[in-house]
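Team,

Forwarding the record for the chain on the shared tracking sheet. I've put the sequence and predicted structure together so nobody has to dig through attachments.
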Amino acid sequence: MRSSILLVVLAVACGGTRPTGPGSGPARTDALAERFPLARLGDRALCDQLLARAEEDYAVTVDAEPRARRKVIVSDLHLGPGTTDPRFSGIEDFYADAEWAAFLEREGARGPIDLIIAGDFVEFWQLAVALGALPRVDDRAQPPAGAVLGADQAFAAAAIELVIAAHPGVFRALGRLLDGGDHRVIVIAGNHDADLLWPKVQLAMARAVAARDPARLVFVQSAAYQHAGTYVAHGHAYDAANRFATGHAPFGRDRDGRCRLQTSWGEVFVDRFYTETERQIRFIDNLYPESAAILWAVRDNPDAARDLGAAVRALDMLRAAQSRGLNRDAVGAVLQGVLGVPGARGGGPGSAREVLDHVTDRLTRGDRSAEALAAAMMRLTYDPELAQLQRGLVAAARALPDVPAALRALGGIDPGALSTLQATLFGDALETAARDLIDARDVDVVVLGHTHSVGGLVKRIAGRTHAGHYANTGSWISVASVPELRARGIGWDRLSLADRALFPSKMTAVIVAYEDGEPLPPVVQNAGAPMH
């Protein structure tokens, strides 16, 4: 097993009772702030600390906690700024505040738990777009070399206050859970909420949770978390389009000396293309996979003005991504989606050679999926349905900059073919990563999120040395499967977020119970209560 990593809990402070008197507020705030010493640092000193983080210390947090509580693992709530401010029109995706509180109460009543929030708890990316907090990739403040940089701590501190104000019950429910028994809440940052790594954001969240024993609120400073035979991460590290250049410390300093988070192709996509598209098609990110949803919109619900605007934004996005390897990441993501390749040590493939090397390695080391992979590659070449998909994408690319012609080419593609290509033929990059992690980390269970897999999943997988289980946490936002909707004969004109039969919230959690300190096979739980 690789060397253990120090569990950095910049969480919270001494226990005691909640403040009740009028004069107790400042003292409580000061006591809590003492547990976040980095929050007191100026920008330059803070950046010095964050950039000094070494991979061997911050790649994985190995928790030394002796007790193996039942783990309740969730991800992808995407808490936003609410619906009242017109600046944020179309951004909010979380409407299950009451159901969240009931879920925590129910799970806490079943006995001691570690609630693990495995990334994308908060939707910082779209808030950054709406507030103009992202510097362009060609901005003069961008450093001359290294990773492209995004938003800073000042933005994140303001954004988390907006989210807390919009969803106070979500945070209060976490406090009630922590006060109600021998429970912990463990928070792992994802790609949409890497801002949770900023110390001022952690302090603000700890204040909102307001637990009597705030040391039970744990902010994982690493890219992943491991405890009692279970490994948990968000999963974006295995996605070429959404990984950070430095996953264990995704920060950088711009030309003006300001500390910022790194950005990725995915965030550029959200900035230049996705947010405005979602304002026009509110349920676009409630369809899975989203690529198939966009093609469905173009094909079955053509809107010249909307589609032309989307195409212009897409071109602008592509131009923005020509520098600093972002375009390479996008190409790598396409290869990854086709071949299910996570990339070495979590960094997605950047070239055809890397993909070929990975596939060759899988074949030569006796990977049990090698035969299926070889058959899938043959189908990509000869299957008429997939050939039509390939021809459509190539035709659309060749048609540019003739946008109407490109849209016509895309309109001829069956949107279900994309999900068929990825899910049915070539498997899942996160599953491949989980198989490698079972061996590399010597764990029995690997839990990832990120993909919004409808209803989550659990799958037994075999590594080189032993077998284990891979689980995906799905999402708490309302998600419908494009292939399933189309198989049921649901047309685009029938889609409405208000129809919970079409867009149910699965409220998915992965449960890992223990017997004699060893993890049992994980179970997917879908609360599935209708949202109000």
